[in-house]
Amino acid sequence: MASFEVIGGHPLKGEIVPQGAKNEALQILCAVLLTSEPVTISNIPDIRDVNKLIELLRDMGVKVGKLATDTYRFQADAVNLDYLDSEQFVAQGRALRGSVMILGPMLARFGKCQLPKPGGDKIGRRPMDTHFLGLEKLGGKLTLEGTDFYRIKAENGLRGTYMLLDEASVTGTANIVMAAVLAQGTTTIYNAACEPYLQQLCKMLVRMGAKINGIGSNLLTIEGVESLGGTEHRMLPDMIEIGSFIGLAAMTGSEITIKDCQVPELGIIPDTFRKLGIQLEVRGDDIYVPAQDHYEIATYLDGSILTVSDHTWPGLTPDLLSIVLVVAIQAKGTVLIHQKMFESRLFFVDKLIDMGAQITLCDPHRAIVIGLDKRNALRGISMTSPDIRAGVALLIAALSADGRSVIDNVEQIDRGYQFIDKRLNALGAQIRRL
């Protein structure tokens, strides 16, 4: 198990370029299974989860060619369906949450797929009902073997239908959309997710020949086509990294310019950090965060305590709440953090309390942060990363703290952040991989 040794208390300075979006990559890469023609994808992040998915596709028989550091060409013209019965496939599927998104493309194109219950972060219950209910409405027949192995078939093909999703699941919507584009007839999906990553997927599918209306809304109408062709696609920068770098700059009193942010795709993320008192300037497509010795949390108009909560798009992504919570530690004022979607994502606050933060965990979903206003620095401690986003939040806390911190299980961080130690060290951080 790898660890980071962090010597905190050093302000950073310079420019940093966000990686390609992990959450988009997991959808886009699975979409290559929908066609036998070449698909070229650029701005792919070099991170563990994405690399594992590329390895899975290659082992399934997809031809994979690396054209540049972040650019690959895929061609799924010889997919080996027998590989799905192998022990290696079962092991790969269990290790990677994103593997669930092969279901829709495989069912649409080949009429069947199977998958063990995928793994991923331990952040609470993450049911896959939306995926399966949607695919069943299109004509898939699901069987469960044991408690965690799924088989789904569409022996008579998929047929378009109307569906109201039980939740606006991003990955669930992506799976259903990828199945519906090759279904017979019209599919209408209401309460669809509309995150930028899902919009990117839909736009890519349209370039491949799909007929999708309502992109960017929660009502998608899809006219099925017989086949899809190849295309080229460039992924968005990762909005979670961008938010993490904004928070890092504020927490450590650093001057950082975040390059090539695709600012119009960030939604309310910049304004959420502004509510915490963080100054930031949009300069073209870059975000400049000046060094700040002080930032103050806003209140509501009646003076009551600000609440920051996650919500489906265009609300705040839940992946940034850990960052918001950490940044609030050194603000002036008080904020209530309400994590609605996952019941275990706030359980890392005990480490922050050990570092000197003033946080009250109200229940599994809510925490009150009373800001220190930078009167007292956090102190370095030894801790363990429980998941990707909490791991980076703890790294930000360690970089702002006095003294030495050790963060264990940083393989979790590697799953979502590309060479984060080397990139931050280039700005002046002191992070050593043990």
Question: Which key terms come to mind for this protein?
Answer:
434 residues, alpha+beta, 4-stranded mixed sheet, 23% strand
Tell me what the structure shows.
- The chain is an alpha+beta fold and 434 residues long.
- Helices cover 30% and strands 23% of the residues.
- The protein contains 14 helices and 23 strands.
- Strands 21-22-1-23 form a 4-stranded mixed sheet.
- Strand 15 (281-283) and strand 16 form a beta hairpin.
- Helix 4 packs parallel to helix 6 (170-180).
- The longest helix has 14 residues, at 239-252.
- The protein starts with a strand and ends with a strand.
- The model is unreliable at 120-126 (pLDDT under 50).
Helix content, binned percent: 25-40%
Query: Which strand order does the major sheet show?
Result: 21-22-1-23
| Structure summary, number of beta strands | 23
Class by alpha and beta content: alpha+beta
Strand content: 15-25%
**N- to C-terminal distance:** 9 Å
Tell the overall outline: globular
What is the count of DSSP helices, taking H or I runs of 4+ residues? 14
- The stretches of 5 or more residues where confidence is low (pLDDT under 50) are 120-126
Mean pLDDT: 94
Radius of gyration: 22 Å
Main beta sheet: strand number and arrangement?
4 strands, mixed
